[in-house]
Amino acid sequence: MNATCIMPGQPISLTTDSAFHRNTYDSRVISLDSKNLAIATPTLKGLKVPLNVGFVVHLSIETADGSCRFTTEVLAGDTGRHALVLRLPADCQMLPNSSPAAARCRFIAVTSGKGGVGKTSFVINYAIALAERGRKVLLFDADLGMANVDVLMKTSSRSSIVDVIEGYRSMHEVITPTAYGIDIIAGGSGMATLGALAPAQMQRITLGFKWLESHYDYVLIDTGAGLSKNVTSFVFAADETIVVTTPEPHAITDAYSIIKVILEESRDVKLKLLINKCESNSEGIDVMKRVSRVIRNFLDYTVTPIGCMPESRSVSRSIREQVPLMASHPNSDVAKCLRGIAETETLSDAVSRLEDAETEKRPTGESFVGRFMRRFKMA
């Protein structure tokens, strides 16, 4: 059955396979996206009955086309918001962006203190991992001096973001589809810094970002390495920034330096940390703890750890072959790690939308475009 008939507010009756929850419970639809369904915490005779993550539940949803019945599992719970997130079965999924709940785009910048830490390879494969979970994803190559995303994916891009800035193309005209379920916008090698753009040029690029906001679930921004204005402009505008480093001492020092510079200018940022190219999981965990502790003690900031990626020959092999690792080595340890990071992100995002759905309002925080324009005093 197509999930387009499922709408917020529709009543639900459900049962579980748990020996401790044998009754039929009442609930209602809160929101849904391409793969997840958010429902109100079930009740029995007016009393809330929280269900644990992993519970198998049997749902019957009363829709305009009749009862929609299927079996699924509890993916996440939020007792504070009185809600549960469930998985939509494969035969009951909707097309991406077919409901208002899926219309909010998240802009994620990915940066590093130095080159050679695997930043671009990570962001390409992370984008594919998010797309595998039913999200509509665009990868923007914002490394405007050494743009290479299209090269690593062996994709021919006739236009780039420079064409938008110069007024030759609109944003949707420079988007290149790929064979891996994601779209890309190529960067422009040798382009001047964003701070040097004329007002008309900046207006064109911000209008383009507004278009992206309304057409994608995720926009991943592959920034250049280091501390240029091009990098920090996207960091301060993004909803969150992933800083990629490796266990090598100089890479850790450079990652700390870029985090320090970011926080000295503004603490209104959400920074996450990824340790790449780890010889073992224990090494990655140890490095993550040490770096996080130093940032907390000396910068008074708690960075969010998102994972430790193993060193693997399959990564360098996929780069040489110009085929993303998620496609060339889908069962590798690196690919499994990427899927885990993507799963955590999409589930967290689904839960964060529940409050907006319950209160029947859009998020009130400033958008990427608003922050980007304010950065250049255009708002």
Descriptive tags:
379 residues, alpha/beta, Thrombin, subunit H, Rossmann fold, 2 domains, eight-stranded mixed β-sheet, 12 helices, 16 strands, globular
Word description of this protein:
- There is one protein chain.
- Helices cover 34% and strands 25% of the residues.
- The chain has 2 domains: 90 residues, Thrombin, subunit H, CATH 2.40.10; 260 residues, 3-Layer(aba) Sandwich (Rossmann fold).
- The protein is globular, with a radius of gyration of 22 Å.
- The strands form 3 sheets. It has an 8-stranded mixed beta sheet, with helices on both faces. It has a 6-stranded antiparallel barrel with strand order 1-2-3-8-7-6. Strands 4-5 form a two-stranded antiparallel sheet.
- With 379 residues, the protein is of the alpha/beta class.
- α5 crosses α12.
- The longest helix is centred in the C-terminal third of the chain and has 20 residues.
Topology:
Layout: E1 11-16, E2 25-32, E3 36-40, E4 43-44, E5 47-48, E6 56-63, E7 66-78, E8 83-87, E9 106-112, H1 119-132, E10 137-142, H2 149-152, H3 161-165, E11 175-177, E12 183-185, H4 199-213, E13 218-223, H5 229-237, E14 240-245, H6 249-265, E15 271-278, H7 281-299, E16 304-310, H8 313-321, H9 325-328, H10 333-352, H11 354-358, H12 368-375
Helix pairs in contact: 1-10, 4-12, 5-12
Q: State the CATH topology of the largest domain.
A: Rossmann fold
Q: Tell me which CATH architecture of the largest domain applies here.
A: 3-Layer(aba) Sandwich
User: Number of folding domains?
Assistant: 2
Specify the CATH class of the largest domain.
Answer: Alpha Beta
Identify low-pLDDT runs: 93-103
Q: Count the strands? A: 16
Order of helices and strands: EEEEEEEEEHEHHEEHEHEHEHEHHHHH
Q: What about the largest sheet?
A: 8 strands, mixed
Which structural class should the secondary elements be placed in? alpha/beta
**Radius of gyration using CA atoms only:** 22 Å
What percentage of the residues does DSSP assign to strands (E)? 25-35%
Instruction: Give the overall shape.
Output: globular
CATH superfamily name of the largest domain? Answer: P-loop containing nucleotide triphosphate hydrolases
The number of distinct helices, counting runs of at least 4 residues, comes to: 12
Estimated helix fraction: 25-40%
Distance between the termini: 46 Å
Give the mean pLDDT: 85
Q: How are strands sequenced across the largest beta sheet?
A: 11-12-10-13-9-14-15-16
